Each structure stands twice: as structure tokens, then as C-alpha cells.
Amino acid sequence: MTTAATRGDRRISPVFLGIAAVTAVAGWAVWTGFADATGFAVFLFVTGAWIVSLCLHEYAHARTALHSGDLSVGAKGYLTLNPLKYTHALLSIVLPVLFVIMGGIGLPGGAVYIERGRIHGRWKHSLISAAGPLTNVAFAIVCTAPFWLDALDGVPRAFQYALAFLAMLQVTAAILNSLPIPGLDGYGVIEPWLSYKVRRQVEPIAPFGLIAVFALLWIPEVNIVFFDAIHALLRGLGVEEFQRYCGYDLYRFWRGLFDEQDPGCAVG
């Protein structure tokens, strides 16, 4: 009985499999040029892949917590990769997707609820928090590999652009979520090493950490410095700025309904 329940708690959700299937089909459509509306296919592919990465980000937190002593994550459905099981599905999925649509930025979401009292040892707590951003780093490596390996021969331009834009989302998510700001994973990494007094003082403002990051990025000077760093990092990985720009231009397929998209990004 217990064994069956445990297996059920870890069975991959049909919701996640559906998202992965849509992503795969959209990626195939972008690669082959099968879709008449390339931009819409890019939109589905990038959005689907972004949601998949968000699910795996949260899964990494939960799986690490499971092995660190919090057995409750299974009963909560966190190991099924179902985004509807998260503590805040709105924060974990909907808002990050909206941020991509509005500004082309991979703002991290949250969250799975970890019962920290079940876990002993500061290193375990730090590792649980670090697991999520490390997943985004892994995604970024996969997305940029064709660029820094110079393996783009035969890869359709539309797919290159989509991959470049997706890589930027993963890099921005990894960097932003690694900031030592309360409410983000970067703070979760250092929190176990802070004094009890400091942790108690910070606790009330933790829910506003993500909002603070979003607000800071609206400041032009901060935005410029941040994206200059992102562009420099991606250039070092072989991803050129025009590829990322064209990926975002194609992603916003709806602009073609009201505005002419950049002719320099034409893939037909």
C-alpha cells in the first residue's frame, strides 16, 4: 500500500507530459518550417521549453529536499513535475511566462514548500536552495552548446534564433535567482549561515524579494548594466546579440498583426 502510494507520488504528471509534447511538436515545426506562421511556432516552442525548465527547477528543489530528509514533498505532488501542484502556481508559472512576453526576461518564479524542520545540517539547506538555479545553468549550457561548439551548420535560422532567445531566458533566470536577495534562491543558499537575529529581521521582507528585483530592473541605469552583463556572457558563449534579438522578435508573433516585424530577422 505504502509502496504503491510512493510510486504514485513520483509518477510524471500527464500535465507535464502534455507541455513537453507541445514543446517537442512546436520545436519540430520551427526546425522543419512546417508551420506557415513561424513566429507562432517559435512562441509555442520557447514558452513550452521555458515552462518545462520552470518545472524542472522546482523539481530539483523538491528532489534534493527528499534526499535531505523532507519526505513530505512526495505527498505534496512536487515529484510529479505537475506545475499545478506548486504552492503558488501563479508565481511559479504564470508570472514568469508573462515576464517573458512583456520584456523577454527569465524572471524566476516560486515555489515548492519545503519543511525545513525535517532537514538537519546547513549544507543540506544550502544545497536545496542551490538546486533550482543550477538547473537553469544546465539548461543554459544545453541551449548554448551548439553556439560555442560551432555546431550550427544545417540548423535552420528560425531554430537558431529561438534557441538563442531561450538561452538568454535561462541565463537571466540563473543569475537573478542566484542573487542574495530575500525570497530568492541565492538568499536561501546563505540563509543557513546567518545568525538567528539576522534571519528573523529579514523574514518579514522575504515575500517582497521578487517584486524588488522586478522594480530594480525598471530603473534604466540598472537595466542597462544588467543586460550589458548578460549580453557579454552570452557573447562569450558564442550567442550573438542579433540572434537573441531575432529570437525575441519572432517570439512576439502578434506584432505581425499590428506592426511589421524586423525584416532583418526574416527566415523565409
Task: Describe the fold and architecture.
The chain is built from 13 helices and no strands. With 268 residues, it is mostly helical. Helix 3 runs antiparallel to helix 5, helix 3 (38-68) packs antiparallel against helix 6 and helix 3 (38-68) packs across helix 12 (241-251). Mean pLDDT is 88; it is low at 1-5.
Give a quick precis of the structure.
The protein is 67% helix and 0% strand.
- Give the C-alpha Rg: 19 Å
Distance between the termini: 57 Å
- The 3D shape can be described as globular
Q: Which secondary-structure class do the elements indicate?
A: mainly alpha
> Roughly what percent helix?
55-70%
Taking pLDDT < 50 over at least 5 consecutive residues as the criterion, the unreliable ranges are 1-5
> Sheet with the most strands?
none
Oligomerization state: single chain
Q: Could you give the count of β-strands?
A: 0
Proportion of strand residues: under 5%
Secondary-structure element pattern, one letter each: HHHHHHHHHHHHH
Mean pLDDT: 88
Q: How many alpha or pi helices?
A: 13
